[in-house]
């Protein structure tokens, strides 16, 4: 394993151990390569240096497959998973992206049922640390706009009821499913990504530990090494396919990783201020207003590391990308069917 590969694998393990995998928590908190950038070539950090190209990315696994339409409608979610698992598994193995994505979402729901109950418990226990804990009575004036005590308690109760309802539904839907099959959700999300599902490309690439939680087992290490080689290429494909959130991820991939940064994809493509800024421009111009304002602040900091010529070129490249690629509207509202991939998008892939 290369040194960069080792860093990626150990970083994944540390991220998981620290409890910062993402998924539904992300949604609540924020709700091939050179050809893509060739439209406008950047100048190097030195204005007199030759144009710099981004590092090559191994995209072979993802590039080998092409999207295929679903052979048949997906079964209703009201049906028990055990009743249609074999059918969807056969379709997914044959290259049906929708079938693979459905299996990944369903099995992830089965695997995280206990976590749903734990989240509900955290919300219902005001003395327990957690995301739903009531603010202290002596909160500073900066929190003056926070919900009043009764409103906060009502919202906390509603959220807890939502988590419990999800867990009860999962228990019914997952009855009779072999635990060995539940552990395969990581392979199905990868299969969906390779078969062309854009959201699957993104959330497999940036939430790896949500899909495979058997950290540091021999199988997990092999899986993490494969993720290390595929993730950047899949995010590029999601960007080319029109997911605006992929632009945000690519900007972070060109931003130097910091020891306190929980995102395992940060710095994956090396530190390149130009491309971090260029992709950040696309993110700022295509994401929802709340996220766009955050990116505007990030871009101001990134611009200080570029020459005026580079800033002009980056703006031209971003405009060309938005003209060439038909970006989807940002995902808003609750994710359908509690989909992890849908929640990752709604969090702005942060």
Comma- or semicolon-separated keywords:
350 residues, globular, mainly alpha, 2 domains
Structural summary, described in words:
- 59% of the residues lie in helices and 0% in strands.
- Mean pLDDT is 76; it is low at 10-51, 53-65 and 129-146.
- The chain has 18 helices and no strands.
- The protein has helices spanning 3-17, 24-30, 34-37, 60-63, 85-93, 97-111, 113-124, 149-173, 179-182, 185-195, 198-206, 208-211, 218-241, 244-253, 273-286, 289-303, 308-324, 340-346.
- The protein folds into two domains: 1-65 and 215-350, no CATH class; 67-195, no CATH class.
- With 350 residues, the chain is mostly helical.
- The chain is globular, with a radius of gyration of 21 Å.
Q: Taking Cα atoms only, what radius of gyration do you get, to the nearest Å?
A: 21 Å
Helix content range? 55-70%
Number of domains in the coordinates?
Answer: 2
The backbone outline, from C-alpha atoms, is globular
Task: Offer a concise description of the structure.
By secondary structure, the chain is an all-alpha fold.
């Amino acid at each position: 394993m290369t040194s960069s590969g080792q860093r990626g694998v150990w970083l994944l393990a540390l991220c998981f151990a620290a409890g910062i995998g993402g998924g539904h928590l992300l949604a609540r908190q924020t709700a091939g390569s050179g050809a893509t950038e060739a439209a406008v070539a950047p100048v190097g950090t030195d204005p007199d240096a030759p144009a710099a190209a981004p590092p090559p990315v191994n995209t072979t696994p993802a590039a080998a497959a092409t999207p295929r339409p679903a052979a048949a409608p997906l079964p209703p979610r009201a049906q028990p998973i055990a009743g249609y698992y074999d059918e969807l598994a056969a379709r997914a193995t044959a290259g049906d992206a929708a079938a693979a994505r459905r299996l990944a979402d369903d099995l992830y729901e089965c695997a995280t049922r206990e976590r749903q109950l734990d989240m509900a418990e955290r919300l219902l226990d005001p003395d327990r640390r957690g995301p739903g804990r009531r603010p202290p009575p002596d909160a500073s004036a900066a929190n003056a706009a926070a919900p009043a005590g009764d409103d906060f308690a009502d919202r906390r109760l509603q959220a807890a009821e939502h988590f419990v309802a999800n867990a009860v539904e999962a228990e019914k839907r997952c009855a009779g499913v072999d635990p060995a099959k539940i552990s395969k959700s990581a392979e199905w999300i990868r299969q969906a990504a390779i078969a062309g599902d854009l959201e699957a490309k993104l959330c497999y690439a940036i939430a790896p530990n949500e899909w495979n939680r058997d950290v540091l087992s021999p199988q997990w290490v092999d899986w993490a090494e494969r993720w290390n080689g595929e993730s950047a290429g899949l995010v590029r494909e999601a960007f080319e396919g029109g997911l605006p959130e992929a632009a945000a991820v690519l900007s972070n991939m060109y931003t130097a990783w910091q020891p306190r940064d929980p995102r395992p994809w940060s710095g994956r493509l090396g530190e390149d201020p130009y491309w971090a800024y260029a992709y950040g421009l696309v993110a700022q111009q295509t994401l929802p207003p709340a996220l766009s304002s955050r990116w505007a602040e990030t871009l101001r900091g990134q611009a200080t590391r570029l020459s005026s010529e580079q800033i002009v070129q980056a703006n031209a490249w971003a405009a060309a990308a938005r003209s060439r690629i038909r970006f989807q509207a940002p995902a808003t509202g609750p994710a359908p069917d509690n989909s992890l991939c849908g929640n990752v998008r709604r969090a702005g892939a942060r």
